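Regression test attached.
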Amino acid sequence: MRHLLSAADFSHDEAVAMLDLAEDMAEVNDREVKKLPTLRGKTVVNLFFEDSTRTRISFELAAKRLSADVINFAAKGSSVSKGESLKDTAQTLEAMGADAIVLRHSSSGSAFRLAHTDWVDSSIINAGDGSHEHPTQALLDAMTIRQSLNQDVRGKDLAGVRVLIVGDISHSRVARSNLLLLTTLGAEVHVCGPATLAPSSLVGKERVHYLLDEAIRQVQPDVVMMLRVQQERMTASFFPTEREYSRVWGLNKSRLSALDDKTIVLHPGPMNRGLEIDAASADSKNSKVLHQVRNGVSVRMAVLYSLLSGEKENA
Amino acid sequence: MPRNYILQSATDVFGKSVDVVIEDGAIVEKPALGVEHEKIDCSGLTVLPGFVDLHTHLREPGFEQSETVASGSRAAAAGGFTAIHAMANTFPVADTAGVVEQVARLGEDAGLVHVQPIGAVTVGLKGEQLAELGAMAQSKARVRIFSDDGNCVHDPALMRRALEYVKAFDGVVAQHAQEPRLTVNAQMNEGALSAKLGLAGWPGVAEEAIIARDLMLTELTSSRLHVCHVSTAGSVELIRQAKLRGIRVSAEVTPHHLLLTEDLASGYDPIYKVNPPLRKQSDVDALRAGLVDGTIDVIATDHAPHPKESKDTDWASAAFGMVGLESAYSIAQQVLIDSGESSFERLAEVLSTNASAISGLTDQGTYLSVGKVANLTLVDPEFKTQVESKTQSMSENNPYVGRSFTGGVVHTIYDGQFSYRNRQIVERSAL
């Protein structure tokens, strides 16, 4: 693997192997000295055209724990011609010696474009491109789900696991990457959200639900993944008010009690407490939000390791 | 230089072998005695009326890094065009007599093709207030087609007024049909693929809703409507029904909407980003059927040159548009002739005579009419070529690079003189 652009880049076996590798990395994270020398001398650039402190820090930690040098580049604001600065900025950073570029960009396909043009030769890791994909988020979600269902996780996939993703599916890169990866791993993925935000073409009609209570009843999910609600969706009339959204699609105490005891709750963060998820659900024992954060570092270590140490062997 | 030619043994649109005689720039029935003619062997070539493009972006004034009237004229001549219609979205906008006359004059200076300016419908293409349509119509540029192309005249009251107003000088409003509220930040055809790619969708209904409204306004005002770059099966059906009702509507389709589909967006290469967007194969099929059965009147290129930096970006940052003048004929031949669906007679209509009639050009689309000035294009239907990025156009945003085409333009005769001969531009200064 040279780039990680999409959760669809993984076959079933590759996905399982990547999760296993992430478990190895997790063991490093539990040591007193949380560091491997593997990527010493390599340079990883976090190129973030959108603010995302969490994702950036997670990648930064992952790279540092593998002894890579890390540069953070936050492109300021909304420049008129983001595209030109994507090419120019990436080339500039590569000229300084970047081996991998971790790209967050508001434009769907930007990571694919960076990887498939002659602009740069670096390995490209998609850290979120517009409404398209966020593959390392899907990996960390899969890792969290796998851990919650098994004592011994190695070699296991997610066959038969029922996942319900709730919220703005249309604009969510988290949803898209999870749909791809969790399905590859054998899970049965359903989505639920306002009809304005839940396109049936991504999952098929029979797996789209418009009301959360019905969806919980029908799907009996093992995993409920709540997506963050963006304020701008409301102003664009995708749904009328925060109150109505919260009433119909928010995860709250009563809906939590309708779930099986063992059902886990995920959220990619940052949470809008009181909107898509209430405090009781966010802080419940079902919530695996902090596991997700911890696993995020492990899967990103695994990805960086696969991309950058593999390259050395080939060279 | 003599302006007397005999094009020997060409094949006309009916499949008959003809000798075309041109004297002093005009078509004559027989060579006059005592007149010297240059004889040109045209066996194997089909003679067609010079092509007329209703939809060309020449970018001058204002965007000369993309194209100039001169470079666009060269591309037109190489594509077999003897007349092109320059869209109004220049800077300054072609919304006054002064600007349209400037564009027309630049066309005359280049001298390779008749450059017919299109006037803006509204001041600055802003959709708020009518431009001085009468002044443009009465100017030396003799504007008959008005369009805010790039923007839709979306205000229904303004569109109604424009349709009524242009009746005074037999004008026509050429509408870029795009409901703006349904296409905010739209990037590609809306559907399963746009959902998968995470690109904001441009639903076909945003085009169809405007066309349906405009057809009703056209009927109400007894005026004349031209629909630019029709792209969906639903639009074709609306226009078909309107024609059956007797509404005076004409419609164009671009070569790219006849050939390419939305699947090309999958690689996020903005060379395939165009407005309206590439649609599905079922739309392509409907457009082709509409072109064959007469619902769609013309192939118009929507030649939209852009500099490299406008496409050397991520998808969302890239400009909409693709060049098209130099590949239009090959695509028309593929769609109408090589497909077995239609004939050279129909090809001549959709590439020349219908556009000429819509625009009221008396010297174009006249084909072999005796006494008329010669505006002719000779094509080799067997010629095989692979598209290269460097062409006569200044811009290289060409989606066909690397594709193989059959059929190409060999000679273009504009205003009785070669503008393109043996696949070479003949500069006016060389005459």
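Expected vs. actual: identical. The two ends of chain B are 7 Å apart (CA to CA).
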